[in-house]
C-alpha cells in the first residue's frame, strides 16, 4: 500500500482532563499516515486521483481547534474516523496526536497517542 504523510500539523486547542487545559488551551501537533493506492495519481498527475492534503489539514484543524475532548485518544479517534469517511481512496490511517506541553511534572519532549484505523468492508 502506498502512503501519504502529513507531519506535525500544529494547532491550538482546549483538550485535557484538567480544567486549566480547557480554559487556557495549549498547542497540539498531529501527524498522519494515509494508506491508499497512488498508482493512478502517479500516472495521471491529476489531483482527482489522490487525496487533497489541504482537505485533510482542514479536517484536523476543525477537530483540534473545535469541541474540547478530555483525552488525546478521543481526539485521535475522531481525526481517524473523519479522514476515513472523507475520502473513498483511503483504506487505512495512522494518526499521532502530540501534546508538547502537558501539565505534568518532569522533563520530557512531549506526550503522544498514536492509533491506526482501517475501513471495514
UniProtKB/TrEMBL annotation:
GO biological process annotation, one example: folic acid biosynthetic process
Listed pathway(s): Cofactor biosynthesis; tetrahydrofolate biosynthesis; 2-amino-4-hydroxy-6-hydroxymethyl-7,8-dihydropteridine diphosphate from 7,8-dihydroneopterin triphosphate: step 3/4
Entry superkingdom: Bacteria
Known EC number: 4.1.2.25
Start and end residues of each Dihydroneopterin aldolase/epimerase domain: 4-117
GO cellular component: cytoplasm
Catalytic activity: 7,8-dihydroneopterin = 6-hydroxymethyl-7,8-dihydropterin + glycolaldehyde
Class of this enzyme: lyase
SMART domains cross-referenced by the UniProt entry: FolB
Keyword terms of this UniProt record: Folate biosynthesis, Lyase
Biological function: Catalyzes the conversion of 7,8-dihydroneopterin to 6-hydroxymethyl-7,8-dihydropterin.
Protein name per its UniProtKB record: 7,8-dihydroneopterin aldolase
Amino acid at each position: 500500500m502506498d502512503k501519504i504523510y502529513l507531519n506535525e500539523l500544529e494547532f491550538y486547542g482546549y483538550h485535557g482532563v484538567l480544567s486549566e487545559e480547557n480554559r487556557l488551551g495549549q498547542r497540539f501537533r498531529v501527524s498522519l499516515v494515509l494508506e491508499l493506492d497512488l498508482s493512478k495519481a502517479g500516472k495521471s498527475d491529476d489531483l482527482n486521483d489522490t487525496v487533497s492534503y489541504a482537505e485533510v489539514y482542514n479536517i484536523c484543524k476543525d477537530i483540534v481547534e473545535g469541541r474540547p475532548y478530555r483525552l488525546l485518544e478521543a481526539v485521535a479517534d475522531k481525526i481517524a474516523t473523519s479522514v476515513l469517511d472523507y475520502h473513498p481512496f483511503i483504506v487505512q490511517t495512522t494518526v499521532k496526536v502530540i501534546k508538547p506541553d502537558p501539565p505534568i511534572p518532569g522533563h520530557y519532549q512531549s506526550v503522544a497517542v498514536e492509533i491506526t484505523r482501517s475501513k471495514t468492508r
